[in-house]
Design brief:
The protein has 273 residues and is mainly alpha-helical. It is 48% helix and 7% strand. Strands 1-2-3 form a 3-stranded antiparallel β-sheet, with no helix packed on it. A hairpin with a 6-residue loop joins strand 2 and strand 3. Helix 5 runs parallel beside helix 8, helix 7 packs across helix 8 and helix 8 runs antiparallel to helix 9. It is elongated, with a radius of gyration of 44 Å. The N and C termini lie far apart (145 Å).
Length: 273
């Protein structure tokens, strides 16, 4: 009987997908993409990947796949998204595996572990994980140092060239992992922050009384916070100086010194002799 509906395409029909067959390679791709932060909906939307129903059937029928898939979901970290939070258990396992001799590349290749991008995101987002990973890399550098010593002790004239090549690589790797303890050029400590020293100059001003005309000296000191002058001291009021009288007194004193040199003036005992 003819029908107007065309049969579903192979890529659109979940039952006809090539990814419905269970294989270690396919499971690895699914877990790696899931651990890297990709959602299960996006993974199953790929025609080359199994459907969500197929993944659910695999998880029910295969306990090993269910365990690995659960760990991949726990290690998922969506970069920059709302769920971009690390798992403390997984972070501790990563640090432990690095300290035991594994590299981040081999750990990221594990379907049950986060991807390389997720690990670097964790290092930026979580200072504790970054510190733990730094200590683990220093421990790994110590392991490489001990391994190099054993290789040097076991070297023979026939294996001297190969041992030298391996030692050069171990030395370079240890310097990269822990430059402070195994690097040839020690990293320089950043210079301390320069201390800001504020120098405040005090100045004085003569203030005149508006009613009596008396004078006094007033001191001002700038405030370091606002850099505006503030009055901090005031001298006593003194009567104003009569300039004419003062000039006459100076002339009389000079005349007495000229007429009687060498004598002490009772009005000016510290004067000239």
């Amino acid at each position: 009987m003819p029908t107007d509906t065309a049969p579903p395409a192979r890529d659109q029909n979940p039952r006809l997908r090539p990814g419905n067959r269970f294989s270690a390679k396919l499971v690895r791709q699914v877990c790696i993409r899931l651990a890297a932060g990709e959602t299960q909906v996006a993974i199953c939307a790929d025609p080359a990947m199994p459907s969500r129903a197929t993944i659910g059937r695999w998880a029910r029928e295969r306990p090993g796949f269910a365990r690995i898939f659960a760990r991949a979901k726990a290690a998922a970290c969506r970069l920059g998204g709302a769920n971009s939070t690390d798992c403390p258990v997984t972070a501790h396992e990563v640090v432990t595996r690095v300290a035991e001799g594994e590299t981040l590349t081999s750990i990221a290749a594990d379907p049950a572990m986060p991807s390389m991008g997720s690990l670097f995101y964790w290092r930026k987002a979580n200072p504790e994980f970054d510190d733990g990973l730094r200590v683990a890399r220093e421990a790994l550098a110590e392991r490489f140092s001990d391994l190099g010593w054993r290789m040097a002790q076991e070297a023979t004239p026939r294996t001297a060239h190969l041992t030298r090549v391996r030692l050069s690589q171990l030395r370079w790797t240890a310097a990269i992992l822990s430059p402070r303890s195994h690097g040839r050029i020690k990293p320089a400590e950043p210079p301390p922050e320069a201390k800001v020293v504020s120098i405040c100059y005090r100045h004085f001003q003569i203030e005149v009384h508006p009613e009596t005309g008396d004078h006094r000296v007033v001191g001002y000191r700038p405030d370091p916070r606002t850099m505006r002058p503030e009055r901090d001291s005031e001298g006593p009021w003194t009567p104003p100086v009569d300039r004419v009288r003062k000039a006459a007194d100076c002339d009389a004193l000079a005349a007495r010194r000229e007429t009687a040199p060498g004598q002490v003036d009772p009005d000016d005992p510290e004067g000239w002799r």
